[in-house]
């Protein structure tokens, strides 16, 4: 497989795209390097031809063979590698006429809708091809795409369709927001992958249709046909949520409520709700079953036509477009009587897709599509051969394909989405055939419903019954204890090691049989690198620690990374259990954290009971360090009882109450953490120190400063600055801080009149000036 020149070229091109993404490589340098390499490659190919005419008949053929076999292919692959880097850099370049050049500003905007609007209950999305910007200075031609969002506009937006030219009044152009915390969905990066750098939020009354713009007639008709099919489904099938599930399974409807999405997600069959390669496979199977009287060439022709038609009516979304392209390339090879290889079809499809949009390489959907397809091609034949001969071939395929798909997909799913479904293999074997039958009957319902409404209703009743059974079984399996497991610590090295072993085991089966000892040694070496080498190779120093202050709207949160690879989480202020699911959990998963070594509370534990319960569901917590200032209250006693109960269930491995002036952590690497009382901690490491009091009020701060203690620190972390000038000056004098992080207040709230002349403003203060950072304004702050 790897010996094929096309596959080698595609792999080199992919490596080049990766290099272009992570290295500051100039697109001009890469492009010109490619041209130079191709020039020398051409010379090396032609020089041996002229050499044959020279007077050295013995040495020239050897040089010719060397150049043709080694030098020229190496230079060609290196040229494609640089071309991949240059192509990515060129794709990311923004035209000087792009609409994003007008950010920020308010204009009247004219453009054409290039995708059918997505409408739901609360908001509507339009993607506009910008054409003209109108302002007081006149009219300017522009290019680029705009993401238009209109809230509470379901009925008003229904009149707009693909290809309509519209005018937007008072279009306030802005950049897509970046994530406030690491691990949150990066909306800006997601849009930039589609070359959208501008967003507009408008009222429905600001949109006006002014005509028809430049559009694709075939795509326009497919959107019209899709709307007709939706009406047929609604007319033939009665009842929710079955109608929504069928629309998702057949047409790729993306807006589904959580009570539908979560059971399919937890059982590992969510891909039946996303129009993808599975549905393209269904179409090929249906054509083969319903046209047994046709020759193979006619079947392949019908399959290509049906796949193109289905791809168009589903909006040619990336998952179905990728799968359609792979299958069409393979079938075209067979149709043209060319030797058709599945691996070559996959390689050519990947090359075409990446030439159009190299950003797709970093999308999880793109990676899953090709990894799963390769896994099925490599592993399914091996599994089919291992199954008993008495099992029919079609049943062997129904068993082997889901197993192969899940064995190759789960590491990528765990890496990108931080979950794993142990039941996925079983549910795919059992429920995917049922889903395929449901999709097939849905196609018949649509066909007959468009001609004979009564016959369509009869098929619709069977579709309703099958969909109801599928949904009930999915919900039943989702309730099982091991149906869904979250994985927080699945890092990149685990991912690479898994696929390295997978390739070793299943791509070199014959070599493994001949050289078992070498394979065993290589496997042990891979496992050694996976578990031992990263720890042994890392030099632990006192300077290797980091502090991350997260932006939490209803509380405070701070994450500590210690030099010995241990970590700590400080939660404070209000009980921010809502933020655990939306902010803290995604952040920790993005840092490959599955275990919290130290969980610090800066108020008494009963104020954090909700957060603790939420964290215990997602992470293993080694030790909880509490501040028991309300230890005599009934709520605290209840909290202590619950902690004891959770400890017995092994949710927590340790629990202690922090005392005043107590050193909680001390390491030989030169860092320690101490409790100063009142929920205040001081972390000292490598000559730097952090004084952390995220829940301190102004009164408790004044009381703390009245005590004769050493509060000197380099960085001070507080919810807000004290408003009393005396307290503020005393705070700066006692702590000697050069940097203050404010977790709750904003810049506008903090600029109280008496602070203008304070050292915080840095006016004529020289060495005494203090830098103030507002977490609520800037987002998460990372300090090292």
From TrEMBL:
Keyword ATP-binding belongs to the record: no
Gene Ontology cellular component terms for the protein in this record: plasma membrane
Cell compartment(s), UniProt: Cell membrane
Membrane topology summary: Multi-pass membrane protein
InterPro entries in UniProt: ComEC_N, Competence_DNA_uptake, DUF4131, RibonucZ/Hydroxyglut_hydro
Residues annotated as domain DUF4131: 31-206
One matching Pfam family: DUF4131
Keyword line: Cell membrane, Membrane, Transmembrane, Transmembrane helix
Ranges annotated as spanning the membrane: 6-23, 30-50, 70-88, 269-290, 302-333, 340-356, 362-384, 393-413, 419-437, 444-471, 491-509, 516-533
Gene3D superfamilies registered for this protein in UniProt: Ribonuclease Z/Hydroxyacylglutathione hydrolase-like
Domain ComEC/Rec2-related protein per the UniProt entry, residue ranges: 253-507
PANTHER family linked: DNA INTERNALIZATION/COMPETENCE PROTEIN COMEC/REC2, RECOMBINATION PROTEIN 2
NCBIfam families: ComEC_N-term
The protein, known as: ComEC/Rec2-related protein domain-containing protein
Natural source organism: bacterium (Candidatus Ratteibacteria) CG15_BIG_FIL_POST_REV_8_21_14_020_41_12
